[in-house]
Fold these 4 entries.
Entry 1:
Amino acid sequence: MHFLPLIEAKREGQELAAEQIQEFIRAYTAGQIPSYQVAAFLMAVYFRGLTTAETRALTLAMRDSGEVLQFPPDPRPLVDKHSTGGIGDKVSLPLAPLLACLGFRVPMISGRGLGITGGTLDKLDSIPGFQSLPPAGRIVELVQRVGCVIGGQTERMVPADKELYALRDATATVPSIPLIVASILSKKLAEGLGALVLDVKFGAAAFMPTREKARALARALVTLSAECGVNTRALLTNMETPLGRAAGNWLEVKESVLCLDGRGPGDLRELVLACAAHLLVQTGKAATLAAAHAQAAACLDSGQPRRKWDEMIAAQGADLAAFAGKLARDHTAPVVAALKAPAAGFVARCDARIIGEVVRDLGGGRFTKEAGINYDVGVDALAKIGEAVPAGGVLARVHAADAAQADAACARLKAAFEVAAQPVAAPPLIVETVEPAP
Ligand code: URA
């Protein structure tokens, strides 16, 4: 098959047949199409878009480019959550054991961070001994036994997305809604899920800068996912300001454990419980969102998910004694410095984008996929919008590899905060729920 006519058709805005898209993905994954032609195709899609039928064909072809997890029959529904990514977004970590304790199976396939947004796998890799890349067979076995796994995509899962995503990254074609939908859902569908909750973020530090764009992406995701047989809802959440009080790999693991211990920040708990509550309703385990929320909160507060967390990380190789020892330390980075409020007042702004950039530049994130990261650096003790601070009160603590980097980070962080004389209301976190049209 020659791909030039397919590129020409898309360039002219014509609709491609499902078979053409399937053949394109098959041949591309087999290395039979030069990447310059695929790049041209992606740019044509970027400008012309894809119809719902084309997006569906692309998503399913990408899912089927590799292995799909196969689970034995079991009364526990298979569920997952996906976030489009943000600063301090560690929801997956407490959510997976909570869902397992609520009677779900959770094959949570996660990714690494790139740029300013952190990645769940990088966070987990800061745990001594933790193995974030179990093979597919082991993922199924662990989900069946423990109830939850958080791991990376295996070599054989959705190989088409690995190739395409790298090419999109290099050809400025990432921000195309049909390409994003196919990329996200091909991976989620490869988990064999029954229900999915999506956290689609908007704001300065999010993939989608505005609420309108986030809503458009959420609608496209829930519609196609539901069409593919997965009961799906999306929450639109605010990413102007970080989630929780910590950003940085190990610092976020620590905060996740605090959440499981009932001592975490309110916004993190709110989002964890909301995701769990929606899944309880979506799977018929609760009749109303209010009842589901109460059920999820009671489960979290029982301490059972905290024990499930230990069981999950131990099953994935973690050394629990070393983990507990690390948790007990105030900091693991060599230097900690505090940014202090110049005057008393109320926190009016805590800019997620600046904080994300500072954490990345401290070594907590990466500029290229291949780069290494420093797990111990980051920012914690972040003051939240609306909180009162005294003059000299801590706005944030910086965890750095050396004093010079700590000083530079504190200087840059000043621009992330605004302290107002008058009280300020905290902005709502979850602003909308998007469901498939009935
Ligand atoms: N996350 C993905 O997995 N794919 C995209 O295209 C964008 C965000």
Entry 2:
Amino acid sequence: MTNVDELLARMSPAEKAGQLTQYFYFRLPAGAEAEPALGLDVAEQPQAVEAALSRGEAGSLLFVTDPGEINRLQRLALEGNPHGIPLLFGFDVIHGLRTIFPVPIAMAASWDPEIIERGQAIAAREARAVGIHWAFAPMVDIARDPRWGRIVEGAGEDPYLGAVVAAAQVRGFQRHIIAGPKHFGGYGAALGGRDYDEANLSDHELWNVYFPPFRAAIEAGAGNVMTAYMDLNGIPATASHWLFTEVLRDAWGFDGFVVSDANAVRNLVTHGFARDLTEAGERAVIAGVDMEMAIADPAYARLPESQAPAEVIDSRVRKILEAKVRLGLFDDPYVNEDRARTVLADPAHRAAAREAAQRTAVLLRNEGDLLPLDAGDLRSIAVLGPLADSKRDTLGPWVFDFDLDETVTVLDGIRGFVKDRADVDYAPGIPVGQRTFPSMFDMFGGNAPADPPGFDAEAEFARAVATAAAADVAVVVAGEWQNMIGEAASRSSLELPGRQLELLQAVVATGTPTVLLVMNGRPLDLRWAAEHVPAILDIWYPGTQGGAAVADLLFGDVSPSGKLPFTWPRTVGQIPMISSHTTSHEPENQARRYWDEASTPLFPFGHGLSYGRFSYGDLTVDRPVVGREGTVAVSVEVTNDADRAAAEVVQLYLRQRHGTASRPVRELKGFRRVVVPARSTVVVEFTIGPEHRRYWNAAVRDWVLDATSFDVEVGGSAASFDVRPAVAEG
Ligand code: GLC
């Protein structure tokens, strides 16, 4: 066992500052230009970092994923410091390392903690096998403005779903590596949905909405938390003593370590908060930020000459050393390169990714039960749209170590499923969608979509329409290209980029039955499609095995069971729109708050259809009255009267009728994904405890449990029982 205090006593101030410093270390593809905002001299960076390692002035690296390279750099570090302190390697293992799972918003749409935990455990197993000790995940930021690109990385709008998903991800990660929930706190409330812009949130919103997923992640055992870039209520989150000492440590008892987001400590000067880098480092380390994630020229390197008290610095270094001891790095700092190859090749990982993609898809519409398709009953299937055949887009954003050769696109999946039973004809129809300015991830190469050489837009459009007209069914894949969502990828519109809607309209106009597969990470403007396309299946960015899973769903081997983790607006003008709003004033006109547009969503929170046919029996509670700290048992019968088994996500919502605050018209407080056999009924049970009824009250500025009455409702979506008075829309 390593005695951390003995180590500390032997370390110099520069060595201590080094342990609190994490550097990016990457070698970009030849000729790549680094994102200017990174302030990174691509040519110099690797050498500068290696020099810091040899001086014992770096405690951690990120963006190295090759086991041989990790071992080389670990050796440099161990030789560079006289105390034998090993390096901690962190990375963005967001939804897989080599085996890519559906994007996090899709995993949340499974409403299935088991598959979510399993997916992150596999990602963590692959990460640890290559020598990564720590994931900068889960991203648990509540997102209620889908213009914000990072909605794709989280679990949507709801604190209860977000908390369950956060805990499941942390349990999965922590089986092998450190989980690092991020970005604390309130990052998803960026002004105007513009990434990195300030967030201004009331304590009511912070405590009741934005904090619960972080609290759940910490209670699940997360060993790290990452700061957020932006100002929260006028104070840069990365220097907020309230966030990182009073809330995180004092109130919640967090005993792991905190890392800043990339360059967020240096940027305290940019915020107009710190006068210079020395003060930036001093104020962040005093606030509670143990480690600085830096590109170059770290602020924490200046800690020895700052005013930060020595005991504060020692307490921060102790956190980092304890994490390294817990991981066993002092005893075994290197990674076994042969084992890494074996683990990455494990076929069980691909099977799990396919199962996850099956469970995340959300069936938004299925008029006339067009789905599932009968592969034996079709002569020809048209598969249309450039996203149908894009391996890179099928994986989604925030992936770096993927294997494109083993990535299954929608076209691959349909061809693989149908085999020679029908002709499968592909036509992109339109040029790929292009961003109006480069993505920060373009520097890693292969990120921007490109048309096939010699692409003739008009001829290809005509060919696609003709292909649809000649087919028995048309499957159109449309959505956003993966570089249009994620970090630094917010949008002012939700429209389908490029000529996708035009293509969809032309295909529907041929009269061929049409299925729309949506490849996305945010709700998109589907008003036309929701009226004119009989079947719409949201497949998200479904990952390495995505196309195979999509075929399983399209042809009925598996029934869709996903549910929306956010409210799907009709148009960008309605944003923000949430399910758990209060009644407020004149609820009778709630469906028409605007005169020019309905005030209802296109699809409600928790919505998702199935190939099963579900109905809900009477809901019973074991007691009509319960003490303040008491618990109520709730049960409901769910019947599937279809001829096939299918999974349903049964959702429980509470509505407090009166009390010392106005409470939402419905709050999700329980859910269960259950498989209901054909023509069968199952009983689903929930308990409602005080923790489900307690909320933070802005009047008394504390948690309260009102003496009140509750409506308890259970259904297959938030709109199963619309508590608003029915209003004729017209
Ligand atoms: C990025 C992101 C953060 C990520 C980090 C390292 O800017 O904000 O989520 O983990 O830098 O890549």
Entry 3:
Amino acid sequence: LSRIHRLVLVACGTSWHAAIAGEYLIENFAGVPVEVECASEMRYRNRPLEKDTLVVSISQSGETADTLAAIRGARDLGIRTLAIVNVVGSTIARESDADIYMRAGPEIGVASTKAFEMQVLLLTLLGMALGRLRGTLPTAQGRKLVNELKTIPRKIQQILDGDGHILHIAKKYYRCTDFLYMGRQINFPIALEGALKLKELSYIHAEGYPSAEMKHGPIALIAPDFPSVFVVPRDPVFDKNVSNMEEIKARKGPIIAVATAGDKEVARTADDVIYIPRTSDWLYPLLTVVPLQLLAYHIAVLRGCDV
Ligand code: M6R
């Protein structure tokens, strides 16, 4: 790993969203360039790859045909491959040079949930490990992050304990036919994932966008019956996110916000707020995705869908 000068993360669907989070995490901790490829695009592309590139595939099942084809293509070029997979002994695991197992347990339904959590966690750890190897993540900062990671299960439990409030919000919005999900930086892929969970479970049209990109087209759709879900924790882009929320409000669009506990500023603009515990800026995705999974679940059940 110390000889790697570039990483290409390749995956599909939910795993691809985790890869986008991984790009932010690894570049921040390790200062190494990371590119994310959608496997179904990469496999048919004539993509030059330098020898010091590591191709990292991310897959819950370890059997997704496009992801497998993409890593086979890389291997044919003599590029080293690392797989982050859940299913032990799966084809992608067997055909890669090295594996990191998620050990999330089996995904029961079609919707990837706990696997996504583990993918983001493992990409965080991979970024930190690379950062330590390359000397870009100081020991003290690494220790602080590890200590904070240890609090994440308890914080997720707190979110699960507040599920009744998420059900209440679901009851308010489940008849809507369109949703926009927005977030910035490392919470942008969480917006993508929230939208995917909603459409996959409830058959409602939903799109994820980087918050500011919304004004370059999608804002035209905003109306009183078109809710926006903002992922807006107290991080360095908080103020920017709030000004995007105000743009939605000016067009009378309802807003559901996922915000940091105690944040009164968000409550002034949003119609409904789901609070999550405070954590490190870089670990927020591990928390912000959980209420979005629950929201999609409740909306789907209320619409009579078999989750
Ligand atoms: O098993 P994989 O992670 O390779 O699957 C990739 C996608 O098909 C998968 O993540 C899909 O998007 C999920 N069902 C979404 O919840």
Entry 4:
Amino acid sequence: MITTNENYSKLQASYLFSDIAKRVSRYQESHPDQSIIKLGIGDVTMPLPQCCIEAFHHAVDEMGAEASFRGYGPEQGYDFLRNVIAEHDFQSRGADVESDEIFISDGAKCDSGNIQEIFSSDITVAIPDPVYPVYLDTNVMAGRTGEYSDGRYQGIVYLDSTIENDFLPALPSQSVDLIYLCFPNNPTGSTISKEGLAKWVDFAHQEKALILFDAAYEAFIKDDSLPKSIFEIPGAEEVAIEFRSFSKNAGFTGTRCAFTVVPKKCRAFDKNGNIEMLHPLWNRRHSTKFNGVSYPVQRAAASIYTTEGKEQTRALIDYYMKNAEVIRSEMSGLGYDCVGGDNSPYIWISGKEDSWAFFDRLLNDAGVVCTPGAGFGKCGEGYIRLSAFNSYENVTSAMERIKKIL
Ligand code: MLT
């Protein structure tokens, strides 16, 4: 008899963003004349930078000629991409990351979900609240939690991020094995200082724990004193894995390219407490289950590290950050407390009412889609998240609509 993974029955009905998309399309069907402005899921709207278009065209031409055609590439990614990432994203900031510690993939979402396959199922996992739902849901699927009750899964150590702690969770007061951190944070937009991050690195050393650091939004950091990578913190290479993405900085949400850094010094332990290195484990998993990102996509990703590519991606980021500024200043002007939007594309807004009620009000009365904070966890109740990923025109008209109804 084929039986199903019973952990799936513990999950909430559907993935947050699928749930929102269904609500929006139901609303759209019943109000076909209402134009909708989406500031919900963080999906980019601006076209790919010109450097990527040119690199794509060139790579497609190469694939069309026998002499330059390529079949399977290295599962870990082509050196031309891994080398420029190591140099420009890490070494230039004093982070000692080598190109063979970088694994190119088709998304940080997939990587942050897949990585936990290399850890034992009976580890204790610490997850911030609110949080990008993938971290939690994938651990539920893997059987690392008990049942869901009162907005929380048993067995998870929740790291509350609230206004009281400036949305920077405190170190857990109990022993944990795996810690998820995301800065600039999704959903709150909060950032962490080097000193703050160093405390987590020290804690991971003390606890023999591992940090999974999601840096998908690092490109939005304007304050240069803030760390863009956890590997800017001495000692992090032994206790951390980092996820990065081309989705938000270069508009690759539909193109798909990302990478995960697993330093060769990064360690875990076997059941007897002996050190086991994670680089070979992830390499084994990656090369067994993944056949690499397509050649033209990797060429397009590599193009953003050229001088023109850097200028073009900077322009994209600045464009979205101008939207973020508009959202934050308009919502603050309406008397709402806001976090984020200064070093991140998300603005976390204290909604003065139930998150889903606020979501419904914005959708029904203004035709604006947000993300209800409660969808990111219990501590998100009472908040909504607005995303800066849309055109400037749409963002300003969404703000006009919101101002009319609030
Ligand atoms: C979000 O809106 O939180 C993100 O777009 C989700 C993602 O990147 O998968």
